[in-house]
Amino acid sequence: MDYQLPFDHTVIQRILPHRYPFLLVDRITEFEADTRIVGIKNVSSNERMLCREPGQRPTLPPTMLTEAVAQVGAIMILGKPENRDKLIFFMGIDHVRFRRPVYAGDQVVITATVKRLRAKMGWLHGVARVNGEVCAEGTMTFALGAKGEESK
Question: Which residue, among 66, 85, 84, 81, has the nearest Cα to 137 in the 3D structure?
């Protein structure tokens, strides 16, 4: 790994192809290649994707929380020098559980741990927490492909 911890937006954007408003990771605080990564998602009250029900606190939709977990895992995989010229494809998520809402103002700490890696695919277990309390967790399946393969 060529990057120094913590990774900020500049480093994250060198690794992931996502850009605002679809880039959902603000910082990477821990990175153990092929093992584990920890990232931060700060939920701001001005994010357009928040659900705003009258009389309720704005909440982050569970699908966006799932995408944030997937992006943290993708940073671990694409951050390796041998994967820099590749794209990662989110293939699925199993055994997902949403345990509590994530509100505007929350800081979500996301951990992704490798369950199994192969040359072109793998499985990661992701957990999102706010103040130590689990918000969501599940097992993500991903596939790697060379840039340009997506149009074949």
Answer: 66
For the domain with range 9-151, which CATH number is right: 3.40.50.2000, 3.40.1400.10, 3.10.129.10, 1.25.40.10? Answer: 3.10.129.10
Mean pLDDT of all residues in 128-139: 98
pLDDT score, position 116 = 95
**Residue 90 near residue 142, CB atoms below 8 Å:** yes
Domain ranges of the chain: 9-151
DSSP code for 34: T
| Separation CA 51–CA 73 (nearest Å) | 25
Distance between CA atoms of 112 and 107, rounded to whole angstroms? 16
Other C-beta atoms within 10 Å of 113: how many?
A: 17
CA atoms 36, 82, 14, 117: torsion sign: negative
pLDDT in tens, 7-62: 999 999 999 989 888 999 999 999 998 999 999 999 999 998 998 888 889 999 99
